[in-house]
Amino acid sequence: MIKNIALLVLLCSLLSCKTEISKAPIDKNAVIDSTITAFQTTLLEQQIDSVFKKYHFNGSVAVFKDSLQLYRKENGYSNFKKKAKIDSNTIFAIGSVSKQFTAALVLLQMEQGKLNVTDKASKYVKEFQNKDYEHITIHQLLNHTSGLNLLGGKLMFKSGSGFHYSNDGFNTLGKIVEKVSGKSYDENVQELFKKAGMTNSSTGNTFKGNNFASAYVGNGTLCEEVPNMPKRLDGKEIGTPAGGILSTIQDLHRWNNALYGGKILQPETLKQFMAKSAERHHAIFGKMGYAYGIMLNIGKPNSYFHSGYIKGSPSLNIYYPETKTSVIILSNIADEAKGKGLVFKPHIEIKKITDNLENTLMQLKQKKEVL
Question: What's the rounded Cα separation, in Å, for the pair 212 and 247?
Fold first, then answer.
C-alpha cells in the first residue's frame, strides 16, 4: 500500500513538471485527476479482489465516486440450493442500514411541521405514557441515548445520560411516523425510495419478485437457509423500521448520492441528521460517533456509515463526503459459529482499504492545490 501511494505521489509530481515544460497548453488538473482515478481503480481491484479470495466472500461489493463506478464485483450464490448466482440485480436484506431511512422519514415529518425531535415520544405512542418512559424524546430514540433496550423493559440508564443500541427504539420511531403521517411505514418508505430514485428496494413485508438473495447460516460447504425470509423481517424479533429493508448495490448508491447531495432533506435538516450527538464503542468497528441512524468515523477520514446484520445477512454502507464516494458491501451468508467479528472480517478489511485510500486522496488534493 505504501509503495503504491509513493508511486502515485511521484507520478503526480512528474505530471506537474511535465505540464510546466510542455509547449502545448495542458489542463494539469484534468491530467492529475484522471491519473488519480486510474490509480484508485487499480488499487481497489487489487486489494478488494484479495479480500474476496481470502475469505471466499459470497456477496457483492461496489465503490462509486459520485456517478463513476470505480470497482464492482459479485461472487457466489443468491440461492445455494438452486445454484443461482449473485448478479447486479440481486436484492439483499440490509439489516440495520435500514435505520437511516427511518431517521430520514422522521426528519421529513419534522420538515412538514408534524413533529419535533425535541418532542417526547409519549406524545405519540401510548406505550411510552408511563413513569419510566414519559421523558424519552424523539432525539434520544434517533441516537440511541434513550436508555431503552426492549420495549416494556426497565431503562438501562437515565434518558440522555448514556448510549445503548435499541432496535425497539427505532421501531417506536416507525410508529411515530405512522401516527403523524396517517400512513403505514411501508407506504412512507416506498415514497422515500421513489424520491431517491431507488427502483428495486422494498420492505421484507412488501417484497415481490425473484431476485432476493436467500439468507444462510454456515459456510459455502455446509449451510442452512434462514426460514421465512424476507417476511420474518417484519416480526417482533427485528421490525421493519429497525432492520427490515431490502435493497441493491445500485439503489444504495442512489440513496447515498440523493441523501448527502441534499435531494432528500433540507440543508439545515441534513446537518442535524449528520451531526454527531452521541458516541458508542461498537463491538466490531470500535469507537465511533453516532448521529441519527448513522455512524461517524472519529478522526480521519470523514465518513458516514452503518453496518447491518440480520441472521445470515451482514452488510455495510459507507459514504465519504469529501470525495462523494460510496462503498457498499452486501452478503447473504454468515458463519455465526465463528462469531460476528469474523463474519464482518471482510467488511472491516474493505473499510480499512477505503479509509486509507480516502486519506491518501485528501493528501493528494492538498498537494494538487499548491502545484
Answer: 9
Residue-by-residue pLDDT tens, the chain, 371 positions: 545 555 555 455 544 444 444 455 676 667 667 888 888 999 999 999 999 999 999 999 999 999 999 999 999 999 999 999 999 999 999 999 999 999 999 999 999 999 999 999 999 999 999 999 999 999 999 999 999 999 999 999 999 999 999 999 999 999 999 999 999 999 999 999 999 999 999 999 999 989 999 999 999 889 999 999 999 999 989 999 999 999 999 999 999 999 999 999 999 999 999 999 999 999 889 999 999 999 999 999 999 999 999 999 999 999 999 999 999 999 999 999 988 889 999 999 999 999 999 999 988 877 766 55
216-218, strands of its sheet edge to edge: 223-225, 216-218, 333-334
**End-to-end Cα, the chain, rounded Å:** 24
The kind and range of the H/E element at 93 are: strand 92-93
> How big is the chain, counted in residues?
371
Distance CA 61, CA 278 (A): 29
Residue 6: which of 359, 356, 360 has the closest Cα? 360
Q: How far apart are CA 304 and CA 291, in angstroms?
A: 9
pTM above 0.90, yes or no: yes
**Which residue's entry shows cell 492538498?**
366
